[in-house]
Amino acid sequence: MYTNPFISLIVILVASMTTNNIVFTQYLGMCSIFGKSDRMKDALTLGILVTLVMVISSVLNYWIYRYLLTGNELGQTGDLRFLTFFVFIGIIAAIVQLLEFIRNKKFPEMAVSLGKWFPLITVNCAIMGVNLLMIDPARTYHLEQVFLFALGSGLGWLFAILLIGAIRERLNFSRIPASLQGIGILALIIGTISLIFLGFSGMIEL
Amino acid sequence: MNDIIKHLVIPNYTNNSNNLFLPKQKEVERFNKVIFFISLPVLVFLIYFFGTSVIITLIVALITLTVIDWLFSALTKKSISGANLVFAILFTIVFPVNTPWWLVAFACMFGTILGREIFGGSGYQLFHPALLGKLFIVINFPKFESSSFFQLLSVDEENLTIKIIWLGYLCATALFLVFYNRQNLYIILGSLLLAALVSIAFYSIGQPVYNSLTELLLLDGLFCGIVIFACDPTLSPKSIKGKIIFGLLVGFLAIVVQKFSSTINEGWVLAILFANMVTPLIDSIFNSSNRINYEGK
């Protein structure tokens, strides 16, 4: 679609951040957004961590998928693609475990502020979603495209959690009906935001 | 009944604290009066061009808004939110002209419930209710999108006088809004300047969105949209830096959406809704020094 390779890379980055935002167009990674967006500082930390895990795991998983699982690059016989889910989730869990070691050494206060949401990055569906979307046969991505797609999706997730965090701060001053307090009003707001993003659809084809 | 008549224009909204996110009561009341008198001539303009269908739309919108307002206040045991006449006029302005009355009722319901009532009424809204209603029509019933007021107005090459009157009215309104509250200057000027720059950029690479300045201002109603819908104190940031960013965002997105989107004919609707959406984030970033301690509430 875009002949210039540099422009196509920029388009992938920008589109996965904005118009094809993984939260508001695919509705992935909601649980952490509902759970940990009540304080902006924690939301920022969690968003950066998710971006980090997303980028590292996509690049590693892309390499593994391309060279070990599809079975035509290193010359082994047999198609190992049925192992995709197991391998991907294992790699993601290993990366989160590694980050947890680093956290215990360098940032022990993060264990208090993020609590259970740090290990739960493993099961954040946005990360697994990006990993599975990048190997979608419809998107013939190379390594650099995978890197930028993961980076853009991660930054889009960061934007989403900051946005919901700020909206939650504002909602503290609103007169919300008692039956909608908490998750209810957030789900309605995210649905409305999805409607706005639906208006953006068709602007860029990924 | 007395309450309803009293609150046709003025919203039932009380906030006198120095809040980080919400405007003061006085500001909201004054702005609603201003927007009422600004939008009345637009309504007259619409009725002059399209006749009774506009009046039907207005009546249906007013009835729907009042009923929803009354229902919500009865169900949630809160006072009514008010300003229904102002919102009914805004709904009428932004809807396509040939929208059937049942669709007007549905879109008004959608816009006013999701944009206003669930947040507690007028003055607390997070998205502009009228623009949400418009988005509802655009996405669900695209066949009614074709004939919008702004496009019908600018198709004819002959009615030059009407164009001049319309442009002069919008300029006067923009000037009035700036004199009424000087901070509106940042939104209006910022969005128009960036929109013009982006259009020039598209023009210079040979893929023009608009061919002249009048087309940019009038063809899809960008100027009217910015003047009437973008300056709301509830829906725009409180700090000056925030207002500049809000204006730039509206101007940039309006042209880019207009150029690339296939779903919507008027890019500024999505641009203003998107900017409304990021307003809490902008407020939160630029006012973090004098943040009120909200935790534990």
Folded structure, characterized:
The complex is a heterodimer of chains A (206) and B (297). By secondary structure, chain A is mainly alpha-helical. Helices cover 68% and strands 0% of the residues of chain A. Chain A contains nine helices and no strands. The radius of gyration of chain A is 18 Å and the shape is globular. Chain A starts with a helix and ends in a 6-residue tail after the last helix. The model of chain A has no long low-confidence stretch (mean pLDDT 88). Chain B has 297 residues and is mainly α. Helix content of chain B is 67%, strand content 0%. Chain B contains 13 helices and no strands. The longest helix of chain B has 26 residues, at 25-50. Classes of the chains: A mainly alpha (206), B mainly alpha (297). Chains A and B meet through helix 8 and helix 9 of A and helix 3, helix 6, helix 12 and helix 13 of B.
Secondary structure: elements and pairs:
The complex is a heterodimer of chains A (206) and B (297).
Chain A: H1 5-17, H2 22-26, H3 30-36, H4 40-69, H5 84-106, H6 110-114, H7 125-134, H8 143-171, H9 183-200
Helix pairs in contact in A: 1-8, 3-8, 4-5, 4-7, 4-8, 7-8
Chain B: H1 2-6, H2 25-50, H3 52-76, H4 84-94, H5 101-115, H6 129-140, H7 149-155, H8 160-180, H9 184-204, H10 213-219, H11 222-229, H12 240-260, H13 267-286
Helix pairs in contact in B: 2-3, 2-4, 3-4, 3-5, 4-6, 5-6, 6-13, 9-12, 11-13, 12-13
Task: Write a concise keyword list for the protein shown above.
heterodimer; A: 206 residues; mainly alpha; B: mainly alpha
